[in-house]
């Protein structure tokens, strides 16, 4: 069977719920990893999503952050509701679950990596520390030798080809060498950037700011990624970016990126 897995920073599930429901009904991803739900677990619109056939797991936080995994398939186990390595970190940025698929199980994480701006500074230090913890967890998951999909808003622009104007973003926390090196280090473990593996074209974006007419001018960046283990990458069929979602009324500033796998 094929398994479609999406990553989408919805920028407030309450503010975007009609758009989210419309897209889920139209695209029908098997798994949707959401970021920036910006609500506590108790206020998440559970019934509306269950009515579409989704099992739902959330790690919420009032007004900020928050991640969720929606799955049409059974969620066997939520393995983590926070990224290991710092017990004092109370930001809701990571959830990981095992999901039943046609040929066994796949492990999926919904990730909202810190922005890190202004950089340098404490927020950038937190970002790099968080990425170091993610690197450690990604290494642990590789040792399981199973399909792993780390899906989400990484707040990293991997290449100059992934930004409309590299010079305008120079020195930003999303493009600084430390951020790019930390992202590349996860790939060097053995993960692949799903988009680069099957497409790789320049200037294919997942985010357009609300400011300065960025959407109309196509002044975007690619910061939403699916990192896949070898066992998932070997079964990757396609990756698509649902760009048109950005043009809807009251849209999120991000759009979904969807990978399709033979799993």
Can you walk me through this structure?
There is one protein chain. This protein has 263 residues and is of the alpha+beta class. The chain has a single domain, classed as 4-Layer Sandwich (Deoxyribonuclease I, Chain A). It is 25% helix and 29% strand. It contains 7 helices and 14 strands. Strands 3-4-2-1-14-13 form a 6-stranded mixed sheet. Strand 7 (104-112), helix 3 (122-142) and strand 8 form a beta-alpha-beta unit. It is globular. The model has no long low-confidence stretch (mean pLDDT 97).
User: Which structural class should the secondary elements be placed in?
Assistant: alpha+beta
Report strand order across the widest sheet: 3-4-2-1-14-13
What's the count of strands?
Answer: 14
CATH architecture: 4-Layer Sandwich
Number of domains: 1
How large, in whole angstroms, is the Cα Rg? 17 Å
List its salient traits.
six-stranded mixed β-sheet; alpha+beta; globular; 263 residues; Deoxyribonuclease I, Chain A
Please describe the topology of this protein:
Elements: E1 2-9, H1 13-27, E2 31-35, H2 46-50, E3 55-59, E4 67-71, E5 75-80, E6 94-101, E7 104-112, H3 122-142, E8 148-153, H4 177-188, E9 192-193, H5 194-198, E10 207-208, H6 214-217, E11 220-221, E12 224-228, H7 230-233, E13 236-241, E14 257-262
Parallel strand pairs: 1-2, 7-8
Antiparallel strand pairs: 1-14, 2-4, 3-4, 5-6, 6-7, 8-12, 9-12, 10-11, 13-14
Helix pairs in contact: 3-4
Condensed summary:
By secondary structure, this protein is of the alpha+beta class. The protein has a single domain, classed as 4-Layer Sandwich (Deoxyribonuclease I, Chain A).
């Amino acid at each position: 069977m094929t398994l479609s897995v999406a990553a989408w920073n919805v920028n407030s599930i309450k503010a975007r719920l009609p758009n989210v429901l419309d897209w889920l009904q139209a695209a029908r991803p098997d798994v949707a990893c959401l970021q920036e739900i910006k609500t506590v677990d108790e206020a998440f619109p559970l019934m509306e999503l269950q009515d579409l056939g989704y099992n739902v797991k959330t790690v919420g936080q009032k007004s900020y952050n928050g991640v969720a995994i929606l799955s049409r398939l059974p969620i066997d186990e939520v393995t983590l509701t926070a990224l290991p390595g710092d017990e004092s970190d109370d930001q809701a940025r990571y959830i990981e679950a095992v999901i039943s698929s046609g040929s066994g199980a796949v492990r999926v994480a919904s990730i909202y990596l810190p922005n890190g701006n202004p950089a340098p500074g404490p927020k950038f230090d937190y970002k790099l520390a968080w990425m170091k913890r993610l690197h450690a967890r990604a290494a642990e998951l590789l040792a399981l030798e199973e399909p792993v999909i780390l899906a989400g808003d990484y707040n990293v622009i991997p290449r100059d080809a992934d930004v409309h104007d590299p010079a305008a973003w120079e020195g930003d926390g999303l493009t600084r060498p430390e951020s790019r090196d930390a992202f590349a280090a996860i790939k060097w473990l053995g993960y692949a950037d799903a988009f680069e593996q099957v497409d790789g074209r320049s200037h294919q974006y997942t985010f357009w700011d609300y400011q300065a007419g960025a959407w109309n001018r196509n002044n975007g960046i690619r910061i939403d990624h699916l990192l896949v283990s070898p066992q998932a990458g070997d079964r990757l069929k396609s990756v698509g970016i649902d760009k048109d979602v950005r043009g809807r009324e009251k849209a999120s500033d991000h759009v979904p990126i969807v990978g399709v796998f033979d799993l």
